[in-house]
Amino acid sequence: MPRPLVLVLGDQLSLMLPSLRDLPANAVVALCEVSAEGRYVPHHPQKIALILAAMRHFAEALRKRGYRVHYSALDDPDNTQALVTEAQRLARLHACDEIRVVRPGEWRLWQAMREREHATLPWRLLEDDRFYTTPDDFAAWASGRRSLRMEYFYREQRRRSGLLMEGEEPAGGRWNLDHDNREPLPTGTPVPAPPHHRHDTTTRAVIALVAEHFGDHFGSLEGFHWPVTRRQALVDLRHFIEHLLPAFGRYQDAISDSEPFLFHSRLAAALNLGLLSPREVCEAAEREYHEGRAPLNSVEGFIRQVLGWREYVRGVYWTRMPDYKRGNALGARRGLPNFFWDGETEMRCLRRAIEMTRDNAYAHHIQRLMVTGNFALLCDVAPEALCDWYLAVYADACEWVELPNTLGMVLHADGGLMGSKPYCASGKYIDRMSDHCRHCRFDPKRVTGPDACPFNSLYWDFLERHAETLSTNPRMKLIYGSLSRMSEEKRNAMRDQAGAFLERLDAAPAYSHARGQGEHRAGYAGVEETPK
What we know:
Blueprint: E1 4-7, E2 28-32, H1 36-39, H2 45-64, E3 69-72, H3 83-93, E4 98-102, H4 107-114, E5 123-126, H5 135-142, H6 150-161, E6 165-166, E7 169-170, H7 201-214, H8 230-248, H9 268-273, H10 278-290, H11 296-320, H12 348-360, H13 365-378, H14 383-393, H15 399-410, H16 427-433, H17 454-465, H18 467-470, H19 477-485, H20 488-504
Parallel strand pairs: 1-2, 1-4, 2-3, 4-5
Antiparallel strand pairs: 6-7
């Protein structure tokens, strides 16, 4: 009888995992905490604590269901502290004849495991069927298409799943209600407080362990609020459905100076770890619409994030790697501004986005796309630098979802594969969608001068620098027309203003282009809540 070691990764904490089905009685299920997985980028301590606490609780759930479990704790003396070698050590320890594992969340691990498929101790890789689509499904959809627009993929997903469909037509007669979902938050709007989960002995022990081993990383462990069991994740799902979903659509693009979560679900981390399934959250949201408790624009907007965007970026990742990671279509080379690590900037919107990230390991998708991401785009920050930062600081950041969002949508570094135009904007956008500017010393209505919002001159300077690449884009003709009608004097003043700002911008040295490829990285496997 075969004796497999079934390796369960930290983002695979589901009893529906394919590798846990139909196991022989002598199978050993292994979960491994290894220091290499927490350090190849300086992951936020809350992110590490979330994953380790969820892993330990899941291991106990497996034991209660009769599985034979070997759990490698971070401080076990025999732990090799690297995922592949630790799995191989455990397989030899238990006299296993193969290692079974479901597709991991990062290409580097997938590649390392595939290289061992025919080794003396072979690795057997299984497809992850917890998603609506597989990489092969996406590849079939993408075959022969000149561009990979999410909207068309999303419509096909609706047809396949039947979600929000009335026969062959979309509910309400429109596929996409995004136009209804762009309102700023009115002053004084009450926002429901998120659930706070009780920390049991296991969670408290993990928080202490992370503080000891990873306390030097960016981010605070105080106020840790993430769900670490399926039961807690279901509490978060119910809270979103009952208290947040009705207003989610209307305010999903709003930004608040004081409220970090607004009406967003914060379910992405639980989804990505396997504590929730995409089907159950989409079906729960759809039920609210059919039963008249949530409007269609909110429900459609949420389902689009999960059924459409989440599945779409995963398809892009798995069908375009590893070359996708090397994309830098705009030739950006600047290092990451130092204030991304400490929040020490006079620009209020950036300061608050970074402070909220530090405190919560979270910022919603508009903060990521149109505040920190927009700033990095306008300053030509190197894709490797920003991608590593997003991967490090957000609890929901697995590379398969983080990389396409950051490199493709935020930085337009894939040359327009995902987005038809860069998501660049001046300070006017932030002023319209947030209350940051009233607390900021900079004036969003000024383009030049000591009190001018830096976003304004950076925006026009970015357009000038990249005119050769972007001016022929049909969606940018109007803005380049406005630029061409400006006087040379005004353009020179904006250019000088942006240049002076960039000269003063302290940044770490830009990463070499080879960094982040293959064996140069040590390793970690980890939407709605990455840049939209």
